[in-house]
Design brief:
There is one protein chain. α1 (about 10-15) packs across α11 (about 305-340), α14 crosses α15 (about 425-455) and α23 (about 760-800) runs antiparallel to α24. The chain is elongated. A hairpin with a 2-residue loop joins β6 and β7 (about 165-175). The protein is an alpha+beta fold and about 850 residues long. About 55% of the residues lie in helices and about 15% in strands. The strands form two sheets. A six-stranded mixed beta barrel has the order 2-3-8-5-7-6. It has a six-stranded mixed β-barrel with strand order 12-13-18-15-17-16.
Length: about 850
């Protein structure tokens, strides 16, 4: 089709686009940056989801996984499993491993039956197969031990070591297990042996804690896993079996991916909002450059609709180009990540180009372009020709198609953000927060321009010129500071949250939390254990450094006498109702009890069972003081009344139990103890070694090692979050560049006038540095303030951590914003000064 056959607006748009996109570079960059961030976050998350889905059988270890707690499978159950297909069985127990040198560490000892694994492959070094690694010689079974544990224990292949009191031989190094991810995170080192060896060592004896068994079943290729799961539940009702299919192999990881994708994508959306000012500025600057053409068309009788359609077509085509660039970058970024880090990723990923994340990113980009492009277009359409010939583009924006499109696009952005969020309520809060922050920053920009106008009368020279520019109609304080401030706010919120949580893990926790935890201390030998520990520490035990509590595992089975639906429990507190809990008993109120509601029972109380319950868990289940709960403890049900609601300092040096009963409720039960202690690294090593002699059955957990691992994991995760927040800051800098570019002509005229009037190069550079440095300072200071306001409730109220400010990081953000903005102003001044005054002034 020839150009002449198209409608007039299309022909005009096509002719103007022949000159290129020089005036739309910032427009394209702002759109492409936000779209690329959203597309990259979505594509990476989808790669992980597809990786998990493609390896669901490997992660689960089969098509079905069946767990049972506190007992072994019966022969009837095993037969039912085998009727479905090949089955393997496994069990695990935590215990202390001890090398010949006396070095001891907590391990996760896992025994597997023959045929393991049904799916995937166990990677070993030092042995050709699991059978070779598990072989029994001279009555001692072999085992595969992971490399870090080998190093901590000082073992080499062929060495003999003890787990509990049972000897094993390290015959192989355990590199990986196909179902490791599906079993969740564990702090203890891994040891893999045969199920027979686990049974022979007494690790599955009746009465031991954490006793249970897992079966994995491989179904025929034609079988439907959901139907098989339902049939198995129906054939074995009321047996307490937990059945999971390969489609549910890593639900916890999937939820984490969903949340992380939305958080990173939301930062990309915020960068689109921040870049929206750049989009509006770029459109306004382009229309400013086209004023003579617009004025001529209007003078010749062109209607506003023709003007609007001509430039709307151009904007739409360029928006598609910007979105396309962003989609290309966002689609390629995960592919590059896959090539660079495939072998180092903790979860499987299938990197490819996935259409749905790109469609979502494109929708965000097009809606943002529409929301921020219409107002400048409406102003150009409504400005009369006489004003355009005077180079005045300040027409009033009334109600019209442009206004309607702007409102619909803005609402569409918010609606799309909520609909694609894993938790709509949280999404709504984040959207409102960003909108409020953006509005406050815009008001602060206006206020800064007003204040600069008032202050300039008290100054002189270059400073007066800089303040005059800052208060003028083209002030970057009005256009660039809100966008830069929003980027700084997001980045500072991330930095402050990260610094507080890292401080909590690396500094606060080591001071306030125990450094050692001792599990399964025998109740009849508790005093002897205390004495042995005091001897190992080389000092007397005090309540400030050592606490010991009786403990028992149990589960809440009824609330207010009724069986409850776990799904009806508040999500954040559901853990207390669908898992076994560590409970304790206290005769009278302990120190640091944290009572919030109710009164503790007196010492010696022997009435009906009473409980003290963690307040958030209780309120999550709708419980208050005086209500009843039923606990399943040691094979019997206990109906108890809630007497106390207490605040528990998780990770603190205090009795951190969800449920505490009065002693008479468990009278006659042979309870074991849990103990916590604060110790130096040397004391920790001495105690771990010494307890191996008389208390080998006591498991020792090093909290110090766990905190070190937590810091490393948090650092790796925060790198991605900081990078995404940096995208929003970069969007703000693009807006600044757009503001500088949009005012380049006016700045050149100002510089030429100042030079003619005797202004020196140094004065002009200083004036521009003051103007743009002030913009960066305003954005940096108020951006950090907003980031502080957003981060504090997250740290203190959500994570319940100690607030800690990284003043170095905050200072770097403010200084960086101020310095980069001042540098942009100096570059703008240098460009303006590079032109001779006469040609510049003759163009006016």
């Amino acid at each position: 089709m020839s150009l002449s056959a198209l409608p007039l607006s299309f022909r005009f748009a096509g002719r103007e686009l022949r000159s290129g996109v020089a005036g739309f570079r910032i427009f394209l960059a702002c759109l492409a940056l936000g779209v690329a961030a959203i597309a990259a976050a979505g594509s990476t998350a989808e790669a992980f989801r597809q990786g998990l889905a493609s390896q669901g059988r490997e992660i689960l270890g089969g098509d079905l996984r069946v767990n049972v707690e506190d007992r072994r499978f019966t022969e009837a159950e095993r037969a039912a499993f085998r009727r479905l297909g090949p089955a393997t069985f496994s069990a695990a127990q935590s215990a202390m491993a001890e090398a010949a040198s006396g070095e001891r560490r907590l391990v996760e000892l896992r025994g597997v039956s023959s045929g393991y694994p049904l799916v995937g492959k166990v990677v070993l070094t030092g042995a050709a197969s699991l059978d070779a690694a598990f072989v029994v010689r001279d009555g001692i079974a072999g085992a595969a031990v992971e490399q870090p544990l080998m190093e901590r224990l000082g073992l080499k292949l062929g060495d003999r070591f003890l787990i509990g009191e049972t000897p094993f031989i390290a015959r192989a190094v355990l590199v990986s297990e196909p179902d490791r991810l599906g079993r969740g995170f564990a702090l203890a080192g891994r040891v893999l042996t045969s199920l027979t060896a686990l049974e022979a060592g007494g690790f599955l004896a009746e009465g031991l804690p954490d006793r249970g068994e897992t079966a994995r079943i491989a179904l025929p290729a034609s079988a439907n896993v959901d139907s098989a799961s339902k049939a198995l539940r129906k054939s074995l009702p009321g047996q307490g079996l937990e059945i999971r299919t390969r489609n549910e192999a890593a639900n916890g990881v999937k939820r984490l991916i969903d949340q992380l994708e939305y958080f990173l994508g939301f930062i990309g959306l915020a960068s689109l909002v921040a870049g929206g000012l750049g989009v509006a500025g770029a459109v306004g600057a382009y229309l400013e450059s086209r004023k003579p053409s617009i004025a001529t068309l209007k003078a010749l009788g062109a209607e506003g609709v023709l003007i609007r359609n001509t430039y709307l077509i151009q904007i739409a085509l360029l928006a598609l180009l910007g979105v396309g660039i962003g989609l290309a970058v966002g689609a390629c970024a995960p592919l590059i990540l896959g090539q660079l880090a495939r072998d180092r990723l903790p979860i499987p990923a299938l990197f490819a180009v996935y259409p749905m994340p790109l469609v979502k990113a494109a929708a965000f980009g097009l809606l943002a372009a529409a929301a921020f492009s219409m107002v400048p277009l409406a102003r150009a359409r409504s400005t009369p020709p006489s004003a355009l010939f005077r180079r005045d583009l300040s027409g009033q924006v009334g109600f019209g198609l442009e206004t309607v499109v702007t409102v619909i696009a803005g609402l569409g952005l918010a609606a799309l953000a909520v609909m694609t969020a894993p938790t709509p309520a949280a999404a709504g809060i984040m959207i409102v927060g960003v909108a409020v922050a953006f509005g406050l920053l815009a008001l602060l920009g206006q206020g800064a321009a007003w204040l600069a106008g008032r202050l300039r009368r008290f100054t002189r020279g270059a400073l007066r010129i800089g303040l005059a520019n800052l208060s003028g109609p083209r002030s970057a304080a009005r256009t660039a500071s809100p966008a830069i401030g929003l980027g700084v706010a997001l980045l500072s919120a991330v930095v402050l949250i990260q610094s507080s949580l890292l401080s909590q893990v690396s500094q606060v926790a080591p001071r306030t939390a125990p450094s050692m935890v001792f599990l399964d201390v025998p109740g009849d030998r508790a005093p002897q254990f205390d004495a042995a520990l005091a001897t190992a520490f080389g000092q007397a035990l005090t309540p400030e450094t050592y606490l010991r509590f009786p403990f028992v595992s149990g589960r809440i089975t009824r609330i207010k006498g009724e069986v409850f639906d776990v799904k009806a429990i508040k999500d954040s507190e559901r853990w207390a109702y669908d898992n076994d809990l560590q409970m304790s008993v206290f005769d009278g109120e302990p120190a640091n009890a944290g009572v919030q509601e109710g009164r503790w029972w007196p010492a010696g109380y022997r009435g009906p069972p009473l409980v003290a319950m963690e307040i958030d868990a209780a309120k999550g289940g709708g419980l208050k003081v005086g209500d009843s709960i039923t606990l399943s403890v040691l094979g019997r049900d206990i109906d108890a009344k809630v007497a106390v609601l207490r605040k528990v300092e998780w990770g603190g040096f205090s009795p951190a139990f969800t449920v505490i009963l009065n002693p008479a409720a468990l009278e006659g039960a042979g309870l074991r103890y849990i103990a916590i202690a604060k110790a130096s690294e040397a004391q920790e090593k001495a105690a771990t070694r010494a307890l191996g002699k008389d208390f080998a059955e006591v498991n020792v957990i090093s909290v110090r090692e766990g905190l070190t691992q937590a810091v490393e994991m948090f650092d790796r995760l925060s790198l991605a979050v900081r990078g995404a927040a940096g995208v929003a800051a970069l969007a703000g800098l693009l807006v600044l560049a757009g503001a500088i570019a949009a005012g380049a002509r006016a700045r050149a005229r100002e510089a030429a006038t100042l030079k003619v009037l005797g202004g020196s190069r140094r004065q002009i550079l200083t004036a521009y540095g003051v103007e743009y440095g002030a913009v960066g300072l305003i954005a940096g200071v108020f951006g950090v303030a907003l980031g502080y306001a957003a981060a504090w409730p997250v740290v203190v109220m959500v994570f319940e951590a100690t607030w800690s400010v990284d003043w170095g990081g905050v200072g770097a953000l403010v200084g960086g914003a101020c310095g980069l903005a001042a540098l942009g102003g100096l570059l703008a001044a240098a460009q303006a000064l590079s032109r001779r005054p006469a040609p510049v002034l003759r163009t006016e």
